[in-house]
Design goal:
Layout lengths: L6 H5 L16 E2 L11 H11 L11 H11 L6 E4 L2 H12 L5 E6 L5 H8 L2 E6 L8 H6 L5 E7 L11 H9 L6 E5 L17 H4 L3 E6 L12 E5 L3 H9 L7 H10 L3 H24 L11 E5 L11 H20 L2 E2 L1 E2 L8 E5 L3 H20 L1
Parallel strand pairs: 1-10, 3-4, 3-5, 5-6, 6-7
Antiparallel strand pairs: 2-8, 7-8, 9-12, 11-12
Bound molecules: pyridoxal-5'-phosphate.
The site of pyridoxal-5'-phosphate has 13 residues, from helix 4.
Length: 380
């Protein structure tokens, strides 16, 4: 006998995990926008110290972490939400804000978790296509606001396209949003952007109580295996609401201890960002040398169409089939050479790849493998 599930489970898309994480893990992992650098010794030390208290529940108020974040960003503790990864805050925000009849507006392609929010709540998802430069079309997004809009999400820099918008454009956009509509500015990758000071957006919170800056320890701090993220909010309303809809101990003790410690090592974080940006510049140049045209990246990953993939706003069925075939052959060829990257098909754009900038030697392995696969495809 099979189980009888709720109707909503049939609407919820299954998270498109990267292919290739099977029995034999590839040695070059460039599929999940992780950092190639291991946790800092001081962070490991904090985790080891916290292990001794694992017979106790973690602090359900995350007081120490919120206090440290409050000091760092000048945002009061009650306006800070903590999560089991920033995804946890995002999903909880969806649960708190959305319901049948409500609408959520976001760009597409963007982070693959956003479609879950509407599907899980029964709200309507309004997906606004990116513009010709693969950036958010904020004007088109503002035009989609209706009386039913409860949530607008802007991903800056955008995953998967790696592109970013200047903060001025986002500030102008915020001025057009009614105060009862929550705006989540997902800044998971903001530290990698050279467009402006990654903390400049914090200043927008004072003028916009409806604004939520979503940040994470998964990327620049390299703690994705522990799961901890945070949100800096324009008011205490959203932190209260997300706590209401979640289980009490959503952030584990090791994650809390590691995140507190990680915040004290901004010099190392800055150094790692600089190294990632150096890899970004080099990788973009070398992709161009292979005849490819990567999008203008402000993140720790790049985004480009594979050789031979048809371009254009609307592809016909035959073109999509060709793009999917090129993508699948390339992914297979890369995996055979021990390299895993993210295929664009699962992210809304068949025939494109999203590739994380890894360590120098990993990037070299990827580029070498891609060149070989391209050469092989030309010969067929
Ligand atoms: C745009 C964006 N937001 C949020 C997240 C979630 O990160 P985490 O839940 O690990 O904090 C990711 C992860 O890849 C992301 O790409």
């Amino acid at each position: 006998m099979s189980l009888e599930f709720s109707q909503r489970i049939q609407r919820i898309p299954i998270y498109p995990a990267a292919d290739g994480y099977g029995a034999k893990a590839p040695d070059v992992k460039l599929a999940s926008n992780e950092t190639p650098y291991p946790p800092l010794p001081a962070v490991r030390g904090a985790i080891e110290r916290a292990i001794g208290s694992l017979n106790r529940y973690p602090d359900p108020t995350n007081a120490a972490l919120r206090q440290r974040l409050s000091e760092r960003y000048g945002v009061s503790s009650e306006r800070i939400a903590i999560g089991n990864g920033s995804c946890d805050i995002l999903l909880a925000a969806g649960e708190a804000l959305l319901e049948p009849g409500a609408e959520v507006v976001y760009a597409w392609p963007s982070f693959s978790v956003y479609p879950h929010l509407a599907a899980a709540s029964g709200a309507r998802a309004i997906e606004v296509p990116l513009d010709g430069d693969d950036c958010h079309d904020l004007e088109a997004m503002a035009a989609e606001l209706t009386v039913a809009t409860r949530l607008v999400i802007v991903c800056n820099p955008n995953n998967p396209t790696s592109t970013a918008l200047p903060l001025g454009a986002i500030a102008d956009f915020l001025d057009q949003i009614p105060p009862h509509v929550c705006v989540v500015l997902d800044e998971a990758y903001c530290e990698f952007s050279l467009m402006e000071d990654p903390d400049a957006s914090v200043d927008l919170l004072d003028a916009h109580p409806n604004l939520v800056l979503l940040r994470t320890f998964s990327k620049v701090y390299g703690l994705c295996g522990l799961r901890v993220g945070f949100a800096l909010c324009g008011s205490s309303e959203l932190p209260r609401a997300v706590d209401q809809v979640r289980q009490p101990f959503f952030c584990n003790a090791l994650a809390q201890a590691a995140a507190v410690e990680a915040l004290s090592h901004q010099d190392v974080v800055a150094d790692r960002v600089a190294r990632t940006i150096a890899e970004r510049i080099s990788m973009q140049e070398r992709l161009r040398a292979l005849g490819l045209s990567p999008a203008s990246s402000q993140a720790n990953f790049c985004w480009f169409a594979l050789e031979g993939v048809p371009q254009g706003e609307r592809l016909d069925a035959e073109q999509i089939e060709l793009a999917t075939q090129i993508e699948s052959e390339t992914m297979k060829g890369l995996l055979q050479r021990g390299v895993i990257v993210r295929a664009g098909g699962a992210l809304g754009r068949p025939g494109w790849l999203r590739v994380t900038y890894g360590a120098t030697e990993e990037n070299a392995r990827f580029l070498e493998a891609l060149a070989e696969v391209q050469t092989q495809a030309r010969a067929v």
